[in-house]
Specification:
By secondary structure, this protein is an alpha+beta fold. It is built from two helices and six strands; from the N terminus they run ββαβαβββ. Helix 1 packs across helix 2.
Length: 144
C-alpha cells in the first residue's frame, strides 16, 4: 500500500430532526453524559438522539444507560443498522490502477425522549425506568 495514497472517503449524509449527539471513540464518556444531562435539565429539551458508529457503539450504550439512571421518565428507542463507506486510493506510481474499497460499518441510533406519545410497538422500545431505580446526581461513574 506504499504505492497508493488515500484520496477520498464517501458515506451517506446524516439527516436529523431532533437534537443529536455523535459519539466518537476519542471523546470522554463523562463529557457526553454531562452534555446530555445539560440538554435535558437546563435547556428543557424533550428528545435527544445519540448516534455512534463502529468502535464507539459501546461508549454510546454506556452514555445512554447512565443518563437513563439519572433522569426520570426517559423512554428509549434503539435502532441498529449499517452504513456503506467507500474509500478511494490513487496510485503514486504510473501503471497502477485506482483502488476502491467498500466496507460496511455498524451504527446505532438511540433516541431518549420524555414525550408520552411514543410508539411502544417499535422493536427497539424500552419504557422508562422505575422511579426507585433512578438516582439523581453523579450515579457513581468514575470513568474507568
Amino acid at each position: 500500500m506504499d504505492a497508493y495514497i488515500k484520496t477520498g472517503t464517501t458515506k451517506p449524509e446524516p439527516t436529523s430532526t431532533t437534537t443529536e449527539v455523535r459519539i466518537t471513540s476519542q471523546g470522554k464518556v463523562r463529557k457526553y453524559i454531562q452534555y446530555v444531562n445539560t440538554q435535558f435539565e437546563e435547556n428543557g429539551i424533550d428528545s435527544i438522539c445519540i448516534k455512534a458508529m463502529g468502535k464507539a457503539i459501546q461508549k454510546a450504550i454506556s452514555v445512554v444507560e447512565i443518563v437513563r439512571r439519572r433522569i426520570e421518565g426517559l423512554h428509549q428507542i434503539t435502532e441498529i443498522g449499517s452504513i456503506e463507506i467507500t474509500e478511494t486510493y490513487s496510485p503514486q506510481q504510473s501503471g497502477l490502477d485506482e483502488i476502491v474499497h467498500q466496507k460496511l460499518v455498524s451504527c446505532i441510533s438511540i433516541t431518549l425522549t420524555r414525550e408520552q406519545d411514543v410508539d411502544t410497538t417499535c422493536l427497539g422500545y424500552q419504557p422508562p425506568m422505575l422511579s426507585n431505580e433512578v438516582q439523581a446526581g453523579r450515579g457513581g461513574y468514575r470513568g474507568r
